[in-house]
Amino acid sequence: MIWIILAALGVPIWLIVGALGGALWSRKRFKGAPGVFPCKVRLVSGTEAPSKWPRATAYARWVHDVLLVHAGIALVRSRALPVADGDGPVAPAPDVKLKGGDPVSIRLRLDDGSVVEVAAPAASADLLPGPFRQPHAAPAGT
């Protein structure tokens, strides 16, 4: 009788432990992929009112001109942001809190016309603009 009770309790516990282990493994694997950087994304203008910076940090990477943003404990909530154009240069962002150094941000105009602001640590500043890097000005006198 006791074996039936232990088996009935043990199966769901092992399923939960296995699911959590798989989720953590998936998260670690995604964060270690090349081109992935921590970020926070907020809507600046568009169909909805401007939003505040989220509390949780997401992870993103560029695939051509689409910014893929993964959020959640296991990074399973994904958003694809099709970007039409960069809306300015990478600049300091003192109003957002991020681990990993002073945050920098860039505004991106999406295909639907709305504008989002993406913030990342300064260490990821080279990955932040993706394919929308501002061209460097030529030195004077050349």
Brief summary of the model shown:
The chain is of the alpha+beta class. The protein has one helix at 2-31, and strands at 37-45, 58-63, 66-71, 77-86, 91-92, 103-110, 115-121. The chain has a 6-stranded antiparallel beta barrel with strand order 1-2-3-4-6-7.
Summarize the structure in words.
This protein is of the alpha+beta class. The protein has a domain at 33-124: Pleckstrin-homology domain (PH domain)/Phosphotyrosine-binding domain (PTB) (PH-domain like). Helix content is 21%, strand content 34%. It contains one helix and seven strands; from the N terminus they run H-E-E-E-E-E-E-E. It has one helix at residues 2-31; strands spanning 37-45, 58-63, 66-71, 77-86, 91-92, 103-110, 115-121. The protein has a six-stranded antiparallel beta barrel with strand order 1-2-3-4-6-7. Strand 3 and strand 4 form a beta hairpin. The longest helix is centred in the N-terminal third of the chain and has 30 residues, at 2-31. It is elongated and about 70 Å long. The chain starts with a helix and ends in a 21-residue tail after the last strand.
